[in-house]
Design the sequence.
């Protein structure tokens, strides 16, 4: 709905509260300069119930007059026409109650806080001048009248507004516009205008949340808007869940807007709680054990301190947890690396396995292609290895295989690899090495193994190996990785065929 749609529903709603006749006429005649004390007194006297309430307040300990006041005329003389008018309007507005007892809107708390707004506005204005105090009292009292009107006309939707406000950090104005379609400053202003309120009361209602929105040049209205705005911030110190936040805002804004110094601000803050409690008692609001601003701020600071301590402890815990998590992550990474390595290493001999050999060959062939270099592959097979298993046992055979790998590893460069190709057969990849260069390496390996004594459980045995090798220059040669392996395997077969314990270079037979 648009704002106008919402306003139309409000103005036509049977739930819209109506002001008592005396209050309506009082607002009307108060705006006339020709209205005197007698006119106001005569108007109020026509409402017996209202007059009785005014006289009760006038005779209370709040004013503490030595003689009893019996008539409204006497009250006007003693406490002033403006005060009497303010009392009448306040009593009239306080008489507006909810028609539906199931409403979630707390009317009692609303009027209590509205009264606190009025007292705060009067207290702030008294530091500027002694005139217009009762007028600013009414302005402060009615600044949020739109909230109550919306709550009466849209009870379910406003219940949702209040629920969302308790859950989020969104401003009440934003939630009202989002859920209902119009905020309480707009509705309050339009309804009050419909009731016949004068401009001096309407303008603060319209701009009490955003005083910068008033663009007029009327100094009195500008002052009223600023004072009412500050009164709402001041009472939020008492009634909101964020007193420290609103205290800082009040200090900063009262200095900026009204030029108050710290002494004036401290005076207002020291008096406001007591003034609210005393004024509330006149209208039947019983505020038990009112807390001073100082007490509220101290409690809030202590709570914030506890939260800070808890937050610091939580941070320390998070730092500890983070350190532990980092350690666990590092341990996990290391374990994963070890697992990855294990997945690529032969469990018995601790050299690389067939899977890694295939991957390494692919990478090195690609690298050799880019660098226009040569790569050599040696396949080595232990001669008559079955005899070792048969004569000395499989454990002896395992020992021999491990010793073979250690001997071969010592004869290779760091960037060359040895891998178990299967059984007692091993593959050696020589990076950037020609067939002739690989032949020298292979012959060295063969001699080293042939002259080594393999001693297992004090039993000595001799082992020899047959080796076949092939080379590939990927930038020139057309054959593949599998061809290279096949060529080396054929060369190995030739070494075995010619009597074993020898090296054969297949590259010599290429083409």
Sequence:
């Amino acid at each position: 709905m648009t704002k106008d749609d919402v306003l139309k529903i409000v103005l036509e709603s049977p739930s819209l509260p109506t002001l008592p006749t005396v209050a309506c006429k009082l607002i009307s005649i108060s705006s006339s300069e020709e209205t005197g004390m007698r006119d106001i007194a005569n108007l109020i006297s026509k409402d017996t119930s209202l007059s009785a309430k005014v006289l009760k307040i006038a005779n209370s300990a709040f004013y503490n007059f030595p003689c009893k006041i019996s008539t409204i005329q006497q009250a006007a003389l003693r406490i002033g026409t403006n005060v009497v008018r303010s009392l009448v309007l306040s009593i009239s507005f306080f008489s507006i109650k909810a028609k539906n007892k199931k409403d979630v809107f707390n009317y009692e708390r609303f009027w209590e806080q509205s009264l606190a707004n009025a007292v705060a506005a009067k207290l702030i204005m008294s530091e500027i001048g002694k005139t217009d105090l009762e007028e600013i009292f009414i302005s402060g009292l009615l600044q949020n009248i739109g909230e109550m009107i919306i709550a009466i006309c849209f009870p379910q939707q406003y219940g949702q507004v209040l629920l969302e406000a308790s859950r989020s950090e969104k401003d009440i104005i934003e939630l009202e516009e989002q859920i209902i379609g119009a905020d309480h400053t707009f509705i309050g202003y339009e309804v009050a205008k419909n009731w016949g309120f004068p401009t001096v009361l309407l303008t603060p209602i319209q701009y009490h949340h955003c005083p910068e929105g008033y663009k007029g040049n009327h100094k009195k209205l500008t002052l009223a808007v600023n004072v009412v705005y500050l009164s709402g911030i001041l009472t939020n110190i008492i009634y909101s869940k964020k007193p420290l936040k609103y205290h800082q805002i009040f200090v900063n804004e009262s200095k900026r807007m009204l030029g108050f110094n710290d002494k004036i601000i401290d005076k207002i803050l020291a008096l406001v709680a007591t003034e609210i409690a005393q004024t509330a008692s006149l209208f039947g609001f019983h505020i038990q054990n009112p807390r001073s601003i100082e007490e509220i701020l101290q409690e809030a600071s202590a709570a914030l301190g506890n939260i800070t301590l808890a937050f610091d402890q939580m941070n320390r815990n998070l730092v500890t947890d983070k350190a532990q998590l980092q350690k666990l992550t590092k341990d996990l990474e290391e374990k994963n690396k070890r697992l990855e390595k294990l997945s690529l290493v032969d469990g018995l001999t601790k050299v690389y396995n067939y899977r890694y050999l295939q991957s390494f060959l692919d990478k090195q062939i690609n690298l050799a292609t880019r660098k226009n270099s040569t790569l050599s592959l040696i396949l080595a097979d232990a001669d008559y290895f079955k005899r070792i298993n048969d004569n000395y046992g499989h454990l002896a055979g395992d020992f021999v295989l491990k010793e073979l790998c250690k001997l071969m590893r010592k004869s290779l460069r760091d960037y060359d690899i040895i891998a178990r190709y299967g059984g007692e057969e091993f593959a050696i990849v020589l990076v950037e090495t020609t067939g002739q260069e690989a032949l020298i390496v292979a012959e060295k390996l063969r001699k080293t193994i042939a002259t080594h004594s393999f001693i297992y459980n004090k039993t000595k045995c001799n082992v020899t190996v047959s080796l076949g090798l092939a080379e590939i220059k990927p930038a020139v040669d057309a054959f593949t990785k599998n061809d290279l392996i096949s060529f080396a395997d054929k060369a190995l077969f030739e070494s075995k065929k010619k009597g074993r314990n020898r090296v054969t270079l297949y590259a010599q037979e290429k083409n």
Remarks:
- The beta strands are 375-382, 417-422, 425-430, 454-456, 459-461, 465-472, 503-505.
- The mean pLDDT is 87.
- The longest strand covers residues 375-382.
- The two ends are 89 Å apart (CA to CA).
